[in-house]
Write a structure and sequence with these properties.
The chain is 45% helix and 14% strand. The protein has helices spanning 24-28, 36-64, 67-80, 83-94, 100-116, 121-142, 165-170, 189-197, 231-251, 279-284, 308-321, 358-363, 365-378, 394-413, 430-434, 436-439, 450-458, 476-491, 509-514, 527-536, and strands at 2-5, 7-8, 13-20, 156-160, 176-181, 201-203, 215-219, 224-227, 268-273, 289-294, 326-330, 384-388, 422-427, 445-448, 496-498, 519-522. The protein has an 8-stranded mixed β-sheet. Strands 9-10-11-12-13-14-15-16 form an 8-stranded parallel β-barrel. The radius of gyration is 25 Å and the shape is globular. The chain binds phosphoenolpyruvate and magnesium ion (MG). Residues 192, 292, 294, 333, 428, 449-452, 499-500 line the site of phosphoenolpyruvate.
Length: 542
């Protein structure tokens, strides 16, 4: 039995078999081969396998969905059989003695970059298809199937070097018991996704491919991973899991009770969700509404930006699932670690400080307006709150409001019904926290994103596991910025919520409530423990 320490995102425990998830960059391996003929044969076999896979996917999608949706696979077949691509890969293998994997990767990357540089946005978007086709070939060469994890019948613990948010949202959460990764940190979006799925994750583990297929225990609370645990330990943890389950059932008694401190302060408790499907667990855990719907996760993996009608239907349906309840939808917060194929963002030197969130939206108003029109239309069906991420200045808020006004006028001119949403911003940059008093006069509410606020206050990448020990959610600088924000909100009579991960940190709850924070928005599974803690707090007694 092996006992290994990691960094945990929650106190959950799980027991299950480990499955290795192969990330593309691990598949590439050596660049040079001593046996070009063999490499050529491997490439040709992988090529035929991919052509057959794509034909199968095309036929299946045509039969089960529509010709329109099946077309993507036909297009991928055309890209794969492109003679220039094919020749370039074969030349790289035969003349330059590259391995099949390296040849596919390097030729694919060059082609992708050429597409990215094109002016026509349609052609630019095809760059993402090149990547898909290249990945398919690489997985075929590795002998592993890209989607093989989806076909595993038994629940499993996923082990991988690194996992991006877009890979995480693709995981089938029914069978997923937990994550073990080397990269990533408990404040990364991948960790946040795991939390919303309600599964444990241990990060910063020196993973070993030989653990594939072995039994493991993740003890989130003890930040420990056990590989090949003995029977006695398995029984001990099975008993702990049962006890945790019982505790959760007891907490359910609080589901319909208000979050009210021992001395009578009422706090609103909302859930953070990433997809409409998460609303189910938000309701199960007694959420009073949704305090943060991260809309960018909806279409993180698509090649096309979702059109207005599609977005409108999703937002409206989310509101209909929680009629009359609070619903905050955050506009696209893409960039940095959240990369979507349809945006084809260029690699950046400092992505967290780069072209992301509201900066993309203000720079590409046509894209922004599609979402704003959809949100305005959805707000005809209830009191929708729209929230803008990564704000750093008053000017940004004023520009946003102008664009919103234009969208209103466009809808009005076209006779399309729309509502009057409540407009708020995230306070997640030090610039916004420091100027919160000015910003408060322009908006209806604040929501503090402690994940980014901490990252930018400490100048520490929230995704970097090596910085975790330096990362202090109790740091006075962060606490003071939160306090300043709360004061500015109340001076202007607007409510203030915390929707970053610190909102669920029970060691900070009393501090936040003492500052006058009105609401907390957390992962669904964190709601009831938080409500229990709030009900035990007395703000008048120190
Ligand atoms: C935050 O930054 O705290 C936040 C809630 O937004 P996200 O985690 O999606 O960046
Ligand atoms: Mg953020």
């Amino acid at each position: 039995m092996l006992t290994i320490k990691g960094q945990s995102i929650s106190a959950e425990i799980t027991i299950g078999t480990i499955r290795l998830y192969q990330h593309i960059k691990n598949i590439i391996g050596d660049a040079v081969s001593a046996a070009p003929e063999q490499e050529l044969a491997r490439y040709r076999a992988a090529y035929s396998k991919c052509m057959a896979q794509l034909q199968h996917l095309y036929d299946k999608t045509l039969a089960q969905l529509s010709a329109e949706e099946a077309d993507i696979f036909e297009m991928h077949r055309m890209l794969l059989s492109d003679s220039q691509f094919h020749q370039a890969v074969e030349t790289s293998i035969i003349q330059d003695h590259k391995t099949a994997e390296y040849a596919v990767y390097s030729v694919g990357q060059k082609l992708w970059e050429r597409f990215l540089a094109m002016e026509d946005p349609y052609l630019q978007a095809r760059g993402a298809d090149i990547q898909d086709v290249m990945n398919r070939l690489l997985f075929a060469l590795s002998g592993k199937d890209e989607s093989s994890l989806d076909r595993i019948a038994e629940p499993f613990i996923l082990m991988t070097e690194d996992l991006s948010p877009s890979e995480t949202v693709q995981m089938n959460s029914d069978k997923l018991l937990g994550f073990i990764t080397h990269q990533g940190s408990p404040y990364s979006h991948t960790a946040i996704l795991a939390k919303t799925m309600g599964v444990p994750a241990l990060m910063h583990i020196d993973i070993d491919e030989n653990w594939d297929g072995h039994l493991a225990i993740i003890d989130g609370g003890a930040q420990t991973l056990y590989i090949d645990p003995d029977d006695a330990l398995v029984q001990q943890y099975q008993a702990k899991i049962l006890l945790d389950k019982k505790k959760r059932e007891e907490l359910l008694a609080l589901k319909n009770m208000p979050a009210i401190t021992n001395d009578g302060r009422r706090i609103k408790l909302y859930a953070n969700i990433n997809t409409p499907a998460d609303i189910v667990s938000a309701i199960e855990n007694g959420a009073e509404g949704i305090g943060l719907f991260r809309s960018e996760f909806l279409y993180l993996n698509t090649h096309e930006y979702p059109d207005e009608e599609l977005q409108y239907n999703i937002y409206r349906s989310a509101m209909e699932h929680m009629p009359g309840r609070h619903m905050v939808i955050r506009t696209l917060d893409l960039g940095a670690d959240k990369k979507s194929p349809y945006l084809a963002l260029e690699p950046e030197e400092n992505p967290a400080l780069g072209y992301r969130a509201i900066r993309i939206c203000l720079n590409q108003p046509e894209l922004f307006k599609v979402q704003l029109r959809a949100l305005l239309r959805a707000s005809a069906h209830g009191r929708l709150h729209i929230m803008f991420p990564m704000i750093t200045s008053l000017q940004e808020v004023q520009r946003i409001k102008k664009i919103l006004e234009t969208c209103r006028m466009e809808l009005h001119e076209n006779g399309i019904p729309y509502g009057d949403p409540v407009v708020g911003i995230m306070i997640e940059t030090p610039a916004a926290a420091i100027t919160a008093d000015e910003l408060a006069s322009e908006v209806d509410f604040f929501s503090i994103g402690t994940n980014d606020l901490a990252q930018y206050t400490f100048a520490m990448d929230r995704n970097n596991a090596r910085l975790y020990s330096f990362y202090d959610p109790h740091h006075p600088a962060l606490i003071r910025l939160i306090g300043m924000t709360a004061k500015a909100a109340h001076d202007h009579n607007i409510p203030v919520c915390i929707c970053g991960e610190s909102g669920a940190d029970l060691t900070l709850t009393k501090t936040f409530l003492s500052m006058g924070i009105d609401a907390l928005s957390v992962a669904p599974k964190s709601l009831l423990p938080l409500k229990k803690a709030i009900r035990e707090i007395s703000l008048t007694v120190s």
